[in-house]
Amino acid sequence: MSESIGPVLRVIGCAEADLPAGPARQVAELEAAVWPGSSPGHDPALTPRTMLLVDGAGTVAAALSLLYKPVPLAGRTYRAAGLSSVVARPELRGRGLGGRLVAAARAELAADPAVDLALFSCDRPLAAFYEAAGFEVLPGTVLVGGTPEEPLATDHPGFDKVVLAAFFTDGPGRDRAAFTGVRVPLHPGDTDRLW
């Protein structure tokens, strides 16, 4: 995917495993600067896809990952995608670049017939940022990450998380109701514990 979003910047996306070395290095450096001690990359079982906002010289201004997995809930299995590792260059923050990239990710997920919904959590103060890009807060919803044997939930003591979603099914109202006010067994594993 390649979409022009400004006079110099464009959105590009590819499977994480296919990301060229230069952009991959830039993403790893950005993530390490924002989240010291983090390790780059995601669990291949979640089919990670990287989306970047880059300038004409190939400099990464913002990045995020899309992760995918089936989620059983309310008697069916949903094909879910989550946003992870959303980051913008610190010196470029406040210019709307992260919001443009998140909105582009939502549009890509909405256009993908293999995705029923986007589902992820964020720190409570960031909820308005994601809402501006078209996601909605699910009141009372808790994502249960980690593994069934070692769960990590968004209502873990010390966390101040909210769960956001966007529904792309034929019955978004019904599916929104199924995901509101419940504990969702996300269980993405040990690498991407809450995606």
TrEMBL record:
<dbReference type="InterPro" id="IPR000182">
    <property type="entry name" value="GNAT_dom"/>
</dbReference>
<feature type="domain" description="N-acetyltransferase">
    <location>
        <begin position="14"/>
        <end position="154"/>
    </location>
</feature>
<dbReference type="Pfam" id="PF13527">
    <property type="entry name" value="Acetyltransf_9"/>
</dbReference>
<protein>
    <recommendedName>
        <fullName>N-acetyltransferase domain-containing protein</fullName>
    </recommendedName>
</protein>
<dbReference type="InterPro" id="IPR016181">
    <property type="entry name" value="Acyl_CoA_acyltransferase"/>
</dbReference>
